[in-house]
Structures are given as C-alpha cells and as structure tokens.
Specification:
By secondary structure, this protein is mainly beta. The protein is built from two helices and 24 strands.
C-alpha cells in the first residue's frame, strides 16, 4: 500500500493524501499538494520526500515551524503512525510497507569541504555525507550545488554494475565520485535537486525539487524517473557531470 498522510483538525479528518510522488509539499498556497488554508501556515511550509518505501519531512524555512511527535524539528525521517503538527493541524503518517532505512540514516549529516580523496576517507567513517561540489567555471553563472549521499540499502536485491559520476567543469574537473550507495541526492536544496537511485535494473535520475529540471544529454527530463546509460551527460545547477559504468 502506498504511504499516506491523514490531515485532521480537532480530531476531524479533513483529507487523506497518498504519497505517490517523490516530492510533495504542504502549505497555505493552492499549488501545494496538501493545502492548509490557515494564516499560521506558511505559503510553502514543509516538503515530504518519498524514495522507495521511505519518507522524510523537511521544514521549508517556515515562520512557525512544525512538530513531529511533540518535538520541534527541521527534518525528520518518518515512521508509521508518526504525528506531524503544523499550527493546530495534525498530519498522521501511515505506511505499512517494510522500510529498509533507519532514522539514523537520515538524521546523521557530516558537512565537509575538500578534495574527493578526503571525502572518500570521511565516507568510511560516516554513513551519511554532505559534500560541497566545485563551482562552475568563470562565465557559467550558477549557484554552487551540494551533493548529499544518503544510504537506502535494498533488502536482498541484486545490485547493478557500479557506476561513477565524473565532474566535467570547474576547478575540480576530472575528479570522480563512485555511486556506492542506493540513493544519491544531487543539487542545491531550495534551488534544484535530483535523486540518483541504484536499482536492480540500473540507475535512474528523478527531479524532486526546483522550478528547473535537470538535463541529460542536453534534454530536460520530465517528472518521471529517467534511466541512465553509460556516458550520459548530466547538467544540474550549472555543474556538468558524466555518468559511466565501471569496467
């Protein structure tokens, strides 16, 4: 069964929303997936990211914040029956599917700067890594992206051939990063974010945040996951990368 959020006020159920997209938003404006028309709720208050069987909720710099199980949080990995409170409204997370991820996988984040060699050393000590990618070359005006690697290890599934992302522009052009985890999030939160997923039948890229979609081989991808092939060229937040399979 697809996970869902049940919106209620004073014990009365107002809406049930299936989490059938990678990214869904909660807020006061009509363009949100879950609309809460109340002044205590920000225009775009929070976002729910769902990958495979797992979801996490993240505050989008709202004015009044949010609670999960009575605790004020900015980001939280969701587990079945968790209760999210935004103002006087409550959203209950329902998910009967078996999760392959623990809360620690999403909550632990290490921020680093430096070479990819240093990054790889740090990855050996941490399951969750935040890496700052290089800036574009002069004349390629674009925000500096970050790369977030969050593990979601599949249960008893055959892994595809290992793959690598190689940076093509900027001062670190030529450096490589092996995709050793099942889930890799690329981009800059609030600007443009895409997710690379490693599945039994190969690697896929999916847009999850931002008005502008990533491009693969010069073509902007749509809302659905796009399969990646050997030597595909990815462009995201001004950074050009090549995806290729390891020999």
């Amino acid at each position: 069964m697809t996970a869902k959020m049940i919106l209620s006020l004073d014990g009365e159920v107002l809406q049930e929303c299936l989490l059938d997209k990678e990214r869904m938003t909660i807020g006061r404006k009509d363009d949100n997936d879950i609309v809460i028309n109340n002044l205590a709720v920000s225009s775009h208050h929070a976002a729910i990211i769902t990958i495979m069987n797992d979801s996490f909720i993240e505050d989008m710099d709202s004015t009044n914040g949010m609670l999960v199980n009575g605790e004020s949080v900015k980001k939280r990995f969701l587990q079945n029956s968790d209760l999210v409170e935004i103002g006087k409204y409550k959203l209950k997370y329902i998910n009967d599917r078996v999760s392959t991820t623990t809360a620690a996988d999403f909550e632990k984040t290490v921020v680093m700067r430096g070479s990819l060699q240093e990054i790889r050393k740090e990855k050996d000590r941490s399951e969750d890594t935040l890496v700052k990618l290089p800036e574009p070359e002069a004349g390629e005006a674009a925000p500096t992206p970050t790369e977030i690697i969050r593990p979601v290890e599949p249960a008893q599934e055959p892994a595809p051939q290992r793959a690598v992302i190689q940076i093509l522009n900027g001062p670190n052009a030529g450096r490589e990063l092996e995709l050793v985890k099942s889930l890799t999030t690329l981009g800059k939160p609030g600007v443009q974010v895409a997710v690379l997923t490693r599945r039994p039948r190969g690697y896929f890229i999916t847009h999850v945040e931002g008005e502008n979609y990533p491009a693969v081989n010069g073509q902007v991808i749509g809302t659905h996951p796009r399969a990646l092939n050997d030597h595909d060229l990815i462009e995201l937040v001004g950074i050009k990368m090549e995806f290729f399979l390891k020999v």
